[in-house]
Design brief:
heterodimer; A: 64% strand; globular; B: 114 residues; mainly beta; seven-stranded mixed sheet; four-stranded antiparallel sheet
Chain lengths: 113, 114
């Protein structure tokens, strides 16, 4: 099966930088995705890493090390609106040619003024 | 270009009843996946529909069933509702299997079982 581990809660202040780590165990690994979800809302796609290295999109960056089965999401210049749950999700080959997305349990980020 | 749309947004059902949730995929998408998200948890994969057939299934009982129509829209049916079925039900769409960065989620349907 698949398993993902990420911290349950992270707190930081406005303007700071925060890193949310994710370790995973899966076979048939294709890539690691990150989603943001505000209370009561839809998961919103943030980033996807299929290859090792850092992907940067504005204030958000995501890193993947396939050999370590590890990734992280880096949020810079934190804003109050960044307070939300952040999920890492592995995209993997589940059976035959079928691919699937499996989520971690999420990290609740609280940004303080 | 409409994204993934789901209905209803909220509903309350009594234990033992049946419920049907609906999803219209993003324009151009032909694959629909359903997820259950309990409060404080990550989304859990229920099943995926492509070409009107169930292609993959997660660890959910047979009380959970679905359907995909020729226009790619989909329904999730849950029979004999239990209190533990109370959750946010999310629909995600993609073109084929998609890639990790081309899967789009709807706003979800909040189901409360009392």
């Amino acid at each position: 099966g698949q398993s993902l581990e990420q911290p349950s809660e992270v707190t930081a202040v406005e303007g700071a930088i925060v890193q949310i780590n994710c370790t995973y165990q899966t076979s048939g690994f294709y890539g690691l995705s990150w989603y943001q979800q505000h209370d009561g809302g839809a998961p919103t796609f943030l980033s996807y890493n299929a290859l090792d290295g850092l992907e940067e999109t504005g204030r958000f960056s995501s890193f993947l090390s396939r050999s370590d089965s590890y990734g992280y999401l880096l949020l810079q210049e934190l804003q109050m609106k960044d307070s939300a749950s952040y999920f890492c999700a592995v995209f993997f080959l589940s059976s035959g040619s079928a691919r699937q997305l499996t989520f971690g349990s999420g990290t609740q980020l609280t940004v303080l003024p | 270009d409409a994204g993934v749309t789901q209905s209803p947004t909220h509903l309350i059902k009594t234990r033992g009843q049946q419920v049907t949730l609906r999803c219209s995929p993003k324009s151009g998408h032909d694959t629909v996946s359903w997820y259950q998200q309990a409060l404080g948890q990550g989304p859990q994969f229920i099943f995926q529909y492509y070409e009107e057939e169930e292609r993959q299934r997660g660890n959910f009982p047979d009380r959970f069933s679905g359907h995909q129509f020729p226009n790619y829209s989909s329904e999730l049916n849950v029979n004999a509702l239990l209190l533990g079925d109370s959750a946010l039900y999310l629909c995600a769409s993609s073109l084929g299997q998609g890639q990790g960065n081309t899967i789009y989620f709807g706003e979800g349907s909040w189901l409360t079982v009392v």
